[in-house]
Amino acid sequence: MTTVAVVPTITSDHVVEPGKVASHSHTGRRIVYGVLGAILVVEIAVFAPLLLRAMSALSGPDPRWLALAVGAELGSMGAFARVQRRMLSAGGARVPICHMAALTYAANAVSVTLPGGVALSSGYVFRRLRSWGATVPAAGFTILASGVLSTFAFALLAVTCAVLAGHGGIGSLLVIGAVIVAAGALALAHRRLQPDLIARVAARSLSRANRIRHRAPDAGLASIEHFIEELSAIKPRGRDWLAGLGFAGMNWVADLICLIACCQAVGARGSSLVLVLVAYVAGMSTSGLTLLPGGLGVADAAMIFALTQGGVSTVSATAGVLLYRLISFALVVTLGWLVWAGTWFAERRRELHNAAHPSGTVAAKGQNVTGETSRREVARPAR
Asked: Which of 67, 81, 276, 294 has fewest C-beta within 10 Å?
């Protein structure tokens, strides 16, 4: 909420009252929510008959394909957990894969369901990694490197899609875009640990910020230099990058297999591998163009449109995408919030126990991931 200072003047007509500012803010928020609600109502009214027919196609999906879809999606989440674990290991901290998998599910639930979820999710991951003993640079590097590898892996998948789909205009644009994204990701990964470049940029930004805040030009510079020094000490090996990229690719491919299995489960005839790949890349590429969580609406429409253009009936395409969303979004988010709730209640119980038994606090810490007892367990090499 914006705070406005009220300056007394001779004429009160020009005084800005905080209540009016808050009222305008609430009014604008209601208008935005009203527009989004109206759009949602119109979409439901227009697509309700189609959704009803698609739901009827979901009444009896093939259990074998359904089991494959669920297993593939769980494998996709596990692969991304291994990406983060590998990058954290390169930063000098080790955690069991079960802890990282739980963090991946919880962070994903926060990211796709809450307003500003991406920032909240990054903060949540950062705090959890710090609580497990990771340094500030190691935690930041894990989040940044995991995102870079995921982007690069998706770019490779998009290039593969364009090559398999042909060399038409859309395919050529897709290849060019994917190459640009991949090159940017590689440049970012290559430059991330150049201390001189980072120090110059940070010092310049800090000087400008201190000037605005009327502080000394070098205020806070020592802390930033210490952070850069620690960050520059993180030097992942080539096999760390290769393993991380492999796990990131598995994350996307397993999610793609989930969509393929869902289309097969509802009997979507004509849904070839290349067609589903094109639909998947189209959906994931447009998922960030909507304010709704998880790219709902835009990503679904892009996938359905691509499938129908390839010869799949509208009902079958809608049923396949709907089943895919039920697994990749509803199921995964539900599991994520269950993990988040379980973690939260476990921490509250530990805090209450430590408050009730102060003498046992030291012993209880030994059972945590960051404790010395469990450090022997988490010191096993990452795979």
From this structure: 67
Nearest CA among 277, 327, 264, 274 for reference residue 303: 277
Contacts of residue 112, defined as CB under 8 A and 6 or more positions apart, other chains included, come to 293, 294, 329, 333
Nearest CA to 254 out of 153, 345, 178 is that of 153
- The residue with tokens 């809450």 is 114
Query: Could you report how far apart the first and last alpha carbons of the chain are, in Å?
Result: 47
Beta strands in the chain (DSSP E): none
Q: Tokens standing for 222?
A: 């020592």
How far CA 373 is from CA of 8, 129, 194, 249, 370, in Å, comes to 63, 18, 36, 35, 9
Share in percent of the chain as helix, strand, coil (round to 5): 80, 0, 20
Largest CA distance in the chain: 79
* Closest C-alpha to 120, from 130, 107, 104: 107
| pLDDT one-digit tens code per residue, 172-219 | 555 555 566 556 555 555 554 455 555 666 667 767 777 777 777 777
Smallest Cα–Cα separation from 350: which of 334, 363, 333?
363
For residue 9, how many C-alpha atoms fall within 13 Å in the half-sphere facing its CB?
Answer: 10
Say if residue 32 is exposed, middle or buried (CB neighbours under 10 Å; 0-12, 13-18, 19+): exposed
3-state DSSP assignment of residue 134: coil
What is the DSSP code (8-state) at residue 357?
Answer: -
Q: Residue 165 is encoded by which pair of tokens?
A: 């789909």
Q: What does the block give as tokens for 329?
A: 């979004």
> Is 7 buried (19+), middle (13-18) or exposed (0-12) by CB count in 10 A?
exposed
Q: Is residue 336 exposed (0-12), middle (13-18) or buried (19+ Cβ within 10 Å)?
A: buried
